[in-house]
Amino acid sequence: MKNFDLAIVGGGPGGYVAAIRAAKLGLSVALVEGGDLGGTCLNRGCIPSKTLLKHAEVLNQIKEAGSYGITVNDFSFSIKEMINRKNKVVKQLRSGIQGLLRQNKITLYQGYGTVKDDKTISVATDKGEKNLQAKNVILATGSKPFVPSIPGLDKVTYHTSDTIFDIEEVPNHLVIVGGGVIGLEIACVFNSLGTEVEVVEMSERVIPAEDPDASQFLAKHLMAKGIKIYTDTKITGFNNAGHTVVKMEKEGKKLELVTDSVLVSVGREPNVIGLDELSVEWNGRFVKVDHNMRTSVNGIYAIGDLIGGYQLAHAASEEGILAVNHILGNINKKDIAMPRCVYTFPEIASVGMTEAEAKEAGYKVKSHKVELAGNGKAIASGETNGFMKIIAEEKYGEILGVVMVGAHVTEMISQATSFVHLEGTVEEMESMTFPHPTVSEALFESAAAWLEKGIHY
Ligand code: FAD
Description:
By secondary structure, this protein is of the alpha/beta class. It folds into 3 domains: 2-144 and 269-328, FAD/NAD(P)-binding domain (3-Layer(bba) Sandwich), CATH 3.50.50; 153-266, FAD/NAD(P)-binding domain, CATH 3.50.50.60; 346-451, FAD/NAD-linked reductase, C-terminal dimerisation domain (Enolase-like, domain 1). 30% of the residues lie in helices and 27% in strands. The chain is built from 13 helices and 23 strands. The protein has helices at residues 15-24, 39-44, 46-63, 79-103, 161-164, 181-192, 212-224, 313-327, 355-360, 376-381, 413-421, 426-430, 441-450, and strands spanning 2-9, 29-33, 107-110, 112-115, 120-125, 128-139, 143-145, 173-177, 196-200, 228-230, 233-241, 243-250, 253-259, 262-264, 268-270, 282-283, 286-287, 300-302, 340-342, 347-352, 365-371, 387-393, 399-406. The strands form 6 sheets. Strands 1, 2, 3, 4, 5, 6 and 18 form a 7-stranded mixed sheet that branches. A 5-stranded antiparallel sheet has the order 19-20-23-22-21, sandwiched between helices. Helix 3 (46-63) runs antiparallel to helix 4 (79-103) and helix 3 runs parallel beside helix 6 (181-192). The chain is globular and about 65 Å long. The structure holds flavin-adenine dinucleotide. Flavin-adenine dinucleotide binds next to strand 2, helix 2, helix 3, strand 4 and helix 8. Pfam families: Pyr_redox_2 (PF07992), Pyr_redox_dim (PF02852). Its EC number is 1.8.1.4. Its main location: cytoplasm. It comes from Ornithinibacillus caprae. Its cofactor is FAD.
């Protein structure tokens, strides 16, 4: 039986990143992957969705070309070509990961792993069962779409995020069950492709975990693009009547939607396949860990979607690095600066605490919001829908959180992340020089306005 310093189960952004970091720091590493390298993020998540969102953005630009004085007389698109391009992007990135594993001399076991005890893993490969041993184990098995038991759902054809990115025809009508990040990103793709999209959300607002101003702003703009949003609405059942009938209830009133396609996107549940022989402590459905990613079993770590929390690819990667740090004898410091991005039209990007979280944590906070409507670059680009908001501790101005809404704000949040990570203040942000004309100047304006010395606001 082969022996390693570290064995990792799951080759998503949590597992493969941990494997490379550990190998670079001198550990012998085995990586066990039952599906495709890159996990959900690369194969069924971040990358497929962002590739198709780019296609949607190009289509939107063509449709809006008239407002820039450009006449496009005719255009067409092929969903088949779009999916082909998405597949090429995924393949290119997957072979990049394969190359990195080879380069770093990581032993890849292709097959589902079962963790037998704190040191032994058996892998079901094409060539039969293989066993390996390791001094430390990282569980990085990720998650899959959660499908709730709604009466009649099993009688209709529905998509989850696992299947929608391989769709062969553009539906005329799509009902999206769940107005979270995944549901709304997919709503934007299909709205741009010409599908009539209706989103049903049980909470009082879409993306309920995000800043209320951001989620309300987004809902308003999605509705202006023709996406219908039902909030405070519960789906009570489905009927198959040749077409799909979606039955729902809003404030005691019964409603029905008729559609040719349904996407269920109400959250994700952890992949626990191969973990049933393990006696780690659980936190509800997720594996319980401390801030060094240790489970209750010595030598076993868990990271990524399997432990719940943010359920983001970069969080999984960061947690993988924290686990490797700890295996190498370092103690990690808790970092609150986790950026969160929603790639809708407009985008939302945020970092640190929301205003409500900061107040709950005992801070006296002051926040300031600056609209993009007065920003030169945003006006020149015709992309003025959005705002930037700084949430800071009132007395010393420490930046606790930043929320951005607008085109391309996901590319700008890292600047705010640096401030939250380094415990920077509004005064320090205001003393920086921002390039002109950029949309990021709104961050400077927001800091200046927070200090009550704004130039344009
Ligand atoms: P995963 O990526 O799920 O990888 C786990 C891997 O483990 C899988 O490859 C699986 O095959 C393997 N595995 C499971 N059990 C076993 C076993 N017993 N043996 C061997 N292998 C096993 N996050 C972002 O940060 N940005 C985004 O834009 C974003 N967009 C998303 C869009 C969609 C539609 C979805 C669904 C998710 C998106 N996410 C995004 C979330 C992101 O994909 C996940 O947070 C991330 O993939 C979690 O990484 P992970 O390594 O924990 O698990």
